[in-house]
Amino acid sequence: MATQPTPAKARRIRRLPSDAEREILDAAEAALAERPFRDMSVDDLMRRTGMTRSTFYHYFRSLDEVAIALMRRVQGEMMDVATPWINAGHDEDPVASVPRAIRAVAEIYARHGRVLAAINDASVQHEAVERAWRDGILEDWIRAIAAQLRVQIERGVTRVENPEETARALLLMNTSVFVERLGKQDPPDPPESVAETLSQIWVGAIYPEALAAHRAS
Amino acid sequence: MATQPTPAKARRIRRLPSDAEREILDAAEAALAERPFRDMSVDDLMRRTGMTRSTFYHYFRSLDEVAIALMRRVQGEMMDVATPWINAGHDEDPVASVPRAIRAVAEIYARHGRVLAAINDASVQHEAVERAWRDGILEDWIRAIAAQLRVQIERGVTRVENPEETARALLLMNTSVFVERLGKQDPPDPPESVAETLSQIWVGAIYPEALAAHRAS
DNA sequence: CGAAGATATCGACGCTGTGTCGATAGCAGT
DNA sequence: ACTGCTATCGACACAGCGTCGATATCTTCG
C-alpha cells in the first residue's frame, strides 16, 4: 500500500538543450508519415523525442494544438502558390490561371500529403482544430476566391451565380480529392492527373464556354 | 484488498424484453442528433437505453459497428433517389435529371443530416468504418455514375474526359458540402439552395454547353 | 409440469491513454 | 556561492474500452 512518499533515489537526467517545441513538431510530422492521426498518441509521439510524456504538456495543451501548429506551418505555402490566380490582373488569362493554381496546390499536397491528411482527420476528431480550419483557413480561402469571382463577374469574364457557395463547393471538392488521392492513398496518384480533373470541373463551373470549346477541339 | 469473491447479494433486474439491438441504434441516432460522433461514448449511449455498458458488447463489437449499421440504414434510401438519373433512359433529358437527383439527395441529408455527418466523422476515426464507406458505398456510387457517363459519351451527350475521376471528384464535393451545410451547421442551409449550387457545377463539368446556354438566358 | 439448456443482462476487472501536480536538476544572473 | 527560474521528470487520478464469469429469466422438450 505504502506509496513511497518521495522516491529518494530518483535519478533524473536532463536532456541536452535544444528547441524542444520544434523537435516535437518534427517528430509529429515523422510519426504522421507512418500512420494516420487517429493512431498517434502523446506517448507514441514523445518516445520519438526521447523526452517523457509529461514534458509534452509543457509545450502543448493537447494533440489538437500540434495539429493546429502543423496546419499553420503548411497553410502559408498554400496561399502563396494560389495567389497568382486570386490576384490575377487584367492582363492574365483567367481561364488558364485556374489550372495553374490547382496544379501548384496539388504539388504541395503531393509533397506534404500525409501531414495534410492528418490535419484533415484531426479537424474531425477535435473541435478546436475543426474551428481553426473552418473558421480560420477555409473561410479565408472562400472569401478570397469569391472576391476574385465577383471581380470577374464585373468584368463580364464569368457569370457564376452565388460566388460564395460556388467557391465553397469547389474548395471542399479540392481538399477532399487531394486528401483522398494524394494523402491517404499508397501509392498516391500523379498530381498532374488529379489536378487536371479538378481543373476541368472548375473551368466548367466558372467558364463553361471555355470548357465546351476546349472539348470540342 | 480482498475483492469479494462473488457479491452474494447482487440483485440483478432483467429489463423488459424488446428488440435491444434496434433500441441501441435508435438511441445512437438520438444521441447523434444532440452531439457529434466524437463525443459519443458507449457509456453515454447505453445510459439512454437503460441497459448497462457491457450489454452493448453483446450486440456490437464496438462503436464502429454502430456507425456502419447506421450507414447502411440510410444508404439504401440514397441510392433509390439517385437511380432515376443513374439509369436515365434515352427519353429522359440528362441535363434536367442531374439537378433532380441532387435535390433528392439533398432532401435526405436535410432530414438525416446529423446522422450522416456522424457517419462521415466515424469514417475518419475508425479504420473499419473508413473501409466500409470508401471501398463499399463510395466506390459503388463512383462506378454507377461513371458507367452512366460512359453511356452518355457513347451517345454523344457529353464529352467528359476521365469519367471515373470526374465522378469521384463530384461525389466527394457533394458529400463534403452536404455534411458541412446540412449536417454540421445550425441552422442548416435550405437544401434547395445547396442543391442548386452543386447542380450548376455538375452541369458545368458534364454539359458545359448547357450551362453556358442557361446562364446566357 | 418440471428439468435442462440457451441467452440476455449484469458487476467487476484490467488495460490504455489522458491531463495534472509537486519535486528537482541544472542553468543564469547576481 | 546564493538564488531563483524553468525544463524535465515520476507518480497519480480519471475516463473510456473491451473481456469475463456469474446469473436471472425465457424456451424447449421430455
In short:
The structure is a homodimer of 217-residue chains. Chain A is mostly helical and 217 residues long.
Give me the oligomer status: homodimer
What is the H/E string of chain A?
HHHHHHHHH
- What best-fitting shape of chain A do the alpha-carbon axes yield? elongated
Distance between the termini of chain A: 84 Å
Q: Give the radius of gyration of chain A.
A: 22 Å
Q: Runs of chain A with pLDDT <50, length 5+? A: 1-14
Mean pLDDT of chain A: 89
Number of helices of chain A: 9
Describe the SSE topology.
Two copies of one chain form a homodimer.
Chain A (H helix, E strand, L loop, with lengths): L19 H15 L7 H8 L3 H7 L3 H24 L7 H32 L1 H28 L8 H22 L6 H16 L1 H9 L1
Helix pairs in contact in A: 1-2, 4-5, 4-6, 5-6, 5-7, 5-8, 6-7, 7-8, 8-9
Chain B binds a DNA duplex (30 and 30 nucleotides) through helix 3.
Report on this model:
Two copies of one chain form a homodimer. With 217 residues, chain A is mainly alpha-helical. Chain A is elongated, with a radius of gyration of 22 Å. The first copy, chain A, starts with 19 loop residues before the first helix and ends with a helix. The N terminus of chain A is likely disordered. Chain B binds a DNA duplex (30 and 30 nucleotides) through helix 3.
Descriptive labels:
homodimer, 217 residues, mainly alpha, 0% strand, elongated, disordered N terminus, DNA-binding
